[in-house]
Amino acid sequence: MTVTCRRPVVSFTFDDVPCTALSAGARILEEYGVRGTFYIAGGLLNQVEPDRNMISVQGCHELAEAGHELGCHTFGHEIVHTLSGRALRENLDRNGALLDTFERPVKKRNFAYPYNQGSLRHRQLIADRYQTARGGGDRINRGTVNRGFLWGMEIRQPEQDALALVRQIDEVVKNPGWLIFFTHDVSDTPTPYGCTPSTFSTLVRYAVSSNCLVLPVRDALEHVWG
């Protein structure tokens, strides 16, 4: 696929979806009148981990009702290439059925690879089921890209590095493309894979004020494919 944007496009996405991705991340996006993509792994719902609590069933309903996109992150949060084809299909079926209970069923959702680890052996299976699949790579999507492994830019610790990502917004404004941010928790005491509400708010505000189209992945697709 070819990304050809006349106007810069920015998507804010969340992997795993801790509670604070809803209570802080989603709320900040809504304050600026925009929405994000939340990649849900059903097996993580309601889990209490040492450094974070995960989103609840009710939280998923709240995201959908507020107009955010629910994407797939597998059910069990396994590394995709470690699974057999049959195991992966069953895993994705289970997660898809769960996501369909939170909102009206979607024919083709968007997907993010757990741990940003893609899979050549399962690339056709993923391509058949999802509009896109996102990994990492810390690059802006421009020109010819693989919709089965879109580049993502991580918002993570240390905090000064997360805040410095405003420069990436400058880059996508200067040379339009599709900048997909991803993070996990949005907390005053973030994990290594998250950021503070202040930093997240700064990034969202900067993208909006820079005249970027700030859209969830499902809506960004209407503007980025040439």
Brief description of this entry?
The protein has eight helices and twelve strands. With 226 residues, the protein is of the alpha/beta class.
Task: Explain what the structure shows.
By secondary structure, the protein is an alpha/beta fold. The protein contains eight helices and twelve strands. It has helices at 19-31, 57-65, 85-99, 123-129, 159-163, 166-174, 197-209, 217-224; strands at 2-3, 9-16, 37-40, 48-49, 52-53, 69-72, 111-112, 133-137, 143-144, 150-154, 178-183, 213-214. The strands form three sheets. Strands 2, 3, 6, 7, 8, 10, 11 and 12 form an eight-stranded parallel sheet that branches. Helix 1 links the parallel strand 2 and strand 3. The protein is globular, with a radius of gyration of 16 Å.
